[in-house]
# Entry
Amino acid sequence: MSKHPHLANPNIGLGCMNLSHAYGSPVAEEQAIKALHQAFEMGYRHFDTATLYGGGNNELLVGKALKDRRDEFFLASKCGMAMVDGKKEINGRPENIRKQCEDSLKRLQTDHIDLYYLHRLDFNVPIEESAGALGDLVKEGKIGAVGLSEVSAETLTRAHNEFPITAIQSEYSLWTRNPEIAVLEACRKLGVTFVAFSPLARGFLTGTLKDVADLEAKDIRNNMPRFNAEHYPNNLALLNDYFALAKDIGCTPSQLALAWLTAKDKNIVPIPGTRSVNHMRDNFESAQLKLDAKQVSLLDEMINQNNVHGTRYTAAQQAEIDTEEFA
# Structure
């Protein structure tokens, strides 16, 4: 981790997406800016956004809230996936990456982004072309480092051979173990930081979502098999022992999930997202919690890919990602 001190200090970031995108109606701008200010005050120094989120509105929000503190935090954003004419489009062509970067810089009100990810692999464009385009942006000083999101170990290695990759961001939590197939090992081998999004399993591991009928119509979880009416009750049953362990340790369920991640590998940086300032604080304080090998092993057995009900994505969603799947 010493190679990437900004990512390591502190060892947790804030995923900003939830304020504008995916989980129901966006938060009112004034309230969202206040939340970002409070996150900064409590110690967050790694803020993660993307071109896609809120059709650019999330970057506008982060820029507006934090532009006066720009030299004091690590800024990450993403390109290659955006809303175009009301539809999501994956486009990793070099000219598109460059244009999206220029637009991101304007929205974020900055002259550089510390870490810029290719949000998804464009299966129509060789990864070497996309990585090379991002490398050119590093050479020009527009971005500080190159990242990739939801790619396989093979794609990571090919990209890294074209231009050094600093971080890979993928979903990783107790109930989504795909990085354990090959990507975590590839990260260790190449010296790449692993950034874990949805480390609280999209709210599942917090215990706050008791009934999926409570979700807003626009919430993306409505289209995720694990959250459907058939599977979710079975998944909730997995939490009984989990909550008991959190109580025994003396931490919140969210803190237990985040501490498990950082115990798995010192090279992992979780970026939980939330709309609640109290949850931001709760998550941030998880950095103080250190689990022992027995506790990690207990958690490994408690919730994993073999006992979770339902797939992570629908077939259509799955077609957009390059990440390895369990047999």
Q: What stands out?
A: Residues 94-108 form the longest helix (15 residues). Residues 1-9 have pLDDT under 50 and may be disordered.
